[in-house]
Amino acid sequence: MRYRYSIISTWLLLGICCMLLNTNTADAQRSSDSAMYAFVNHLISQMTIDEKIGQLNLLTSDMAVTGPSMRKQYIEDIKAGRCGGIFNAYGPAYVRHLQSLAVDSTRLHIPLLFGFDVIHGHKTIFPIPLAMACSWDTSAIAHAARIAATEASADGLNWVFSPMVDIARDPRWGRVAEGAGEDPYLGSLIARAFVRGYQSNNLADSQTVMACVKHFALYGAVEAGREYNIVDMSRRRMFEDYLPPYHAAIEAGAGSVMSAFNEINGIPATANHWLLTNLLRHKWHFKGFVVTDYNAIPELINHGIAADTFQASKLAFQAGAEMDMQGLAYIHTLKQLVEQGQISMDALDRAVRDVLIAKYRLGLFEDPYNRINEDRAQREIMSPDKLRFAREMARESIVLLKNENYLLPLKKTGTIAVIGPLANDQRDMIGCWSGAGDWHKAVSILEGIREAVGNRAKILYALGANITDDTAMLRRLNAYGADIHPSSQTPQQLIQEAVATARKADVVVLCLGESEAMSGEAASRADIHIPENQRELMKALYATGKPIVLVLSNGRPLVLTWENAHIPAILETWFLGTEAGHAIADVLFGDYNPSGKLTMSFPYAVGQIPVYYNHKNTGRPAMPGVKWTSKYLDIPNDPLYPFGYGLSYTHFRYSSIRLDRQEIMPGDVLHVRVDVTNDGDRDGIEIVQLYIHDRVADVTQPVKQLKAFQRIYLKKGETRTVEFSLTAKDLQIYDRHMHLGAEPGVFDVYVGGNSRDVQSASFTLQ
Ligand code: BGC
């Protein structure tokens, strides 16, 4: 122990002296980097091969289960130096205990990384990422990540497996809940916001955590939306649509990257040298370390590119996967591979160096316990300011999908029937991947409504239906860890009771959707309607003639064709986290005017999937009534609700677009102006979106691409001129040789409140 601190202080002193000698910050940075490299290299020079391999082994604790395998003797591994990091362990006491085993029992006293899936908050749970994305409020998202970092670090964690930045166009895939939706531009801004929030600008600060960008790469494009499935994709599509958010997160300084489970064109990501080395290291200059996903190295055998663990390890290691998450492959094979000369000691040292540098940057060599802080945990976790912000974030994430005759907002008077399996429900409100979240502290919709109206209105409640009566699905969900208990009443009894309740009310707030266990990992659904038994309840209530407000809780876009045709008001609330019920009541009663806009298209029918706004035109674009054009016989091409869509309780009117010039040269800035008027009767927020279309290019281009947006607050009656600036950089495309550049020609520019309803103009790039 004494030894450890003495080497550290010598090197730190050296670093500080160098810093003092250099006045300029770049020089200071270089010299502190050289002190870091000197320290880490010196440490590596003292390590045995077993100690080195131990640093590349990441093990789960038994506190939480996030994958198929478990190693009971992880404590022994820590003490023996066979482990560089632990995940699924949190809480000051436990983390302190594990850390002390590493620093006190091992020869070189190297501290552990403590990782966890902090995906949308740690203890204060924010809306699922797909929901937060619908706020389009990148500073709020960064702030949510900052709060998550503050809580997670107080709880002992120094590493989060987030952000998940996989672009997704297939709502059957359950993991769309964890990402930002379908758009590369917005997805990139959100990726950056998360990294900024987690890491701040000094990783050594005890209130930061290191980000881990995942799942590298293209996991969101798994075939048929089926979990862990393959991906087959052109380079063009990768670079145009799927890779930008990962790149943005890396440019923002993310300290680590997690390789994906899926294969990419025949080579699994975890063994993909082109991906993990050529692209990530050489092209993008990534300086952190790469960790595999859970057990992904042995799974290379199932993929069919390795005959045994030796071959799997060799392929993964040579591709650039440096830390093995719970696969126990490196720990069992790397030594022999090095001894046989199949992997060089230099390559092993490089991987170990990347991991140790991360620990150094996190300040762990200086103080391995720097984040574990009982007092801070006590003070900070779920403090009132954090809950307040969680409520704000939650209401910004809600999307109003329909509001016929301004049924919403409701008055806090009369009799309101709150009905449905998600009404009096705390568990589901915090959504998937809320590992450390305590659902007992979540606010249900019913509770939120009761609190909001006090004794001014009468609130009735009925369950109405189970989450699902599909017994096979229920059995599966419960076997995978859900805890769903169907009511002892028959479905008919439940419906009768609900109908009787509705009859006594002036309005029905109907809370339907999915259980949180129906989205997230290993939760693909082929049928993405609201479960059938819930739809039966809805139809029975519809038949009463009572006005219905449908409040949806779910982790993916659903097919809502019937609902849209029949139900007058529909509110998409996703899973909003700890403050769900409060936020929903705020919107239901108009204490907050909804402002969220969808970041994933809602299909008209499952058969349309993938359906996304930035599609290509084809040689025969759809023309109604013309046979030989690209369309379906039975349904429209357009989604039910498009990307960028969301209503408000007020109305925003857009003027036509004004361009300050018709032609621009490559160095010019084009100003695009539009007047937006709030011509409704309440104040509100509008998300003004700008899209472009390159009419004729070297390769075919999407019909629209989001290039900018502004989130503006307008008082009722107010008009604001919104101004966007476009430069040639915004017009760049990958040509047929995959060179990025802007081509001269005519461009359409569209501005509107969603990707469908827009004003247009055009200009020429000379
Ligand atoms: C998931 C990752 C997660 C990891 C650790 C995997 O199964 O794909 O997203 O970070 O488990 O829990």
CATH superfamily label of the domain at 387-601 = Glycoside hydrolase family 3 C-terminal domain
Strand order of the largest sheet: 9-6-5-4-3-2-1-10
CATH class of the domain at 387-601: Alpha Beta
**Global shape:** globular
What is the CATH architecture assignment of the domain at 387-601?
3-Layer(aba) Sandwich
In short:
Helix 1 (2-21) packs antiparallel against helix 2 (25-46). With 766 residues, the protein is of the alpha/beta class.
Please render the helix and strand layout as text.
Elements: H1 2-21, H2 25-46, H3 49-55, E1 57-60, H4 74-79, E2 85-87, H5 92-105, E3 113-116, H6 129-133, H7 138-154, E4 159-160, H8 184-199, E5 210-216, H9 235-242, H10 244-251, E6 256-259, E7 263-264, E8 267-268, H11 273-283, E9 289-291, H12 299-303, H13 309-319, E10 324-325, H14 330-339, H15 345-361, H16 374-380, H17 384-397, E11 399-403, E12 415-419, H18 445-453, E13 458-462, H19 471-479, H20 491-503, E14 507-513, H21 532-543, E15 548-553, H22 561-566, E16 569-572, H23 580-588, E17 652-654, E18 658-659, E19 663-664, E20 670-678, E21 684-694, E22 705-714, E23 719-726, E24 733-734, E25 740-741, E26 745-752, E27 758-765
Parallel strand pairs: 1-2, 1-10, 2-3, 3-4, 4-5, 5-6, 6-9, 12-13, 12-14, 14-15, 15-16, 19-27
Antiparallel strand pairs: 7-8, 11-16, 17-20, 18-20, 20-23, 21-22, 21-26, 24-25, 26-27
Helix pairs in contact: 1-2, 2-15, 3-14, 7-8, 7-16, 7-17, 8-10, 13-14, 17-23, 18-23, 20-21
The structure holds beta-D-glucopyranose.
